[in-house]
Amino acid sequence: MPAEIAARPNPALRLLQRVIAVRPEEVPVVLWCWLYIFAVLSSYYIMRPIRDQMGLAGGVNNLQWLFLGTLAGMLLLNLPFAWLVKTLPRSRFIPLTYRFFALNILAFAAALWVADAAATVWVGRIFFIWVSVYNLFVVSVFWQLNVDLFSPEQGKRLFGFIAAGATVGAIAGSSVTASLARSVAPTALLIGAAVLLEVAVFAVGRLARLSPSLQRHPSAAAGGERPIGGGILSGIANSVRSPYLLMVSLFLLLFAITSTFLYFEQAGIVAHSFNDRGAQTAFFATVDLLVNVLTLAVQLFFTGRIVLWLGVALALALLPAMTMIGFGVLAAMPSLGAIAAFQVVRRAGDYAIARPTREVLFTVVPREDRYKTKGFIDTFVYRFGDQVGAWSMAALGGLGAGAAALAAIPIAAMWLLTGLWLGRRQAVMEAANPRAGE
After folding, report:
1. Are 362 and 370 in contact (CB under 8 A)?
2. What is the spatial distance between Cα 296 and Cα 161, in angstroms, rounded to a whole number?
């Protein structure tokens, strides 16, 4: 068990401390966070290639409508989630959120089991929308808990390593689907994804018991965990009122727009390269596997060092710079190899460096903003960026090959400048109040 590992010095603990600068009291919390995000990402990556194939089956030209449905679903879910955060302590609203999604997965498994060929297309479209909502919510809730558990200093040291648990889970999930997509029905894969969410709930329970050991909220530890409180709409309002949080929203918005441009480019190239649905699913799963192998290597040995060496500002600027180069290459060579290489490098850069660094931004804001505002930004703002990107792609479609890739370059440049501003502002806020948000 993680607690036992931390209780006595042993070779595993000494090896862990060589990889990351972790203190003994942090070890059990870090390991349970690993199991938590491993289960969540395994669940998602089992379903992701199924979602992508179903999106193609519904027609590449209909993808912008699926993204619109995703945006609407995200807005609808944010309000009840904000009510849960307002009303219940995190040890209760987090398990409720995951079990709600697990029941949804089982419902889709049953629908796919009984649907005929025509109905499967419509079930697939709904499933595409639902998974696109699901993946942001379940990952956002995980990081909401982490930015509440760990201080800014701990986040810089530990978030990259914790994110490696997500990568291991993604490798496991994508490997399962890549190897079984041609021989196992999607229904069976979905049941496995639902079971993994219950593993995540178990890990949340352990973290609830261990969190007082970090002493970020000593008053809460002494008086028992209490609801976050506040208003249901405060997360939305604070994302506009605070210049810092508004710039975080802009950073994620620009990231999402460029991600959607790349996703549509990939969908078009894959649809023309493969006729067989199983081959399409296997291609998506293989790209996922390559992404996560590269990500894991960086997360285990380099992420924490990169953030500490470069600082938050330059670490945030790496992915936009990489994106500008990638779209330039794609504009010149819109091939299957180019899209696969760009996806692997960009997504690995996001998961290994940009995402852990971006989470550090939320460690200096009040607790209510860590859950409500962060949840709104991670989900609705992100999917709004998807929507802007999707309809922009539809408008650019008539301008010929390479137009979308060229249009993405100045967007990425604006994204880079936003990251530099945010990193510098985070450093100022942390220096002014190292215990911000406690």
Report:
1. yes
2. 9
